[in-house]
Amino acid sequence: MALGLVGDAVATVGSLVTGVLNFFTDFFLTPPLKAAHQYLEEAELKTLKGEIKPFKAKALWEKSGAVIMAVRRPGEEAAELSSLKPQLDQLGVPLYAVVKEDIGTEVQNFRPYFKGEIFLDEKKCFYGPRERRMGLLAFVRVGVWLSGLRAFRKGFMGNVLGEGFVLGGVFVIGRGQQGILLEHREKEFGDKVNISDVLQAAKKIPLGR
User: Interior CA angle at 86 toward 125 and 105, to 5°?
Assistant: First the structure.
């Protein structure tokens, strides 16, 4: 019983410390700004396989809707989202990812984690309209350390190249002008989208003709 009380006390203190650290560091984090549907429609993306071709992002969801991940680093988040691929295929909703840069073997290293097509978003439209960076604040947020430890235990090492401090997100976008059905913006490294919410949003997309 004594050990149980000690455990409860430690957990309470840990939660308090985490809450205090997050409260103060939140003041220094740039709050996300929701993306307008038209803003994402006009985003210019580029193919990464074969001949490089630019195209407007709306082509990804115009006829079928889409689930799109704005990738910060390859890893656990991408793998969990990819677990929905069979269900999304049944719904006729494709799964895509956009990366903000193509440095060395970064995209190649990402492919094993992600089951959809990957495109380049050099202007970082899917990371905006207000670009956010975690910076050194990541090192004083308990959630970041716990997420990193969890990912490490599962074998997700990520990489150390490029702009890994830029926060990403996940979008579920409906067919045509149906609009953005879900928009998840990372609050900190390892802040994963709830994949059940992604699936529920995808189910709102009518079947393509």
Answer: 50
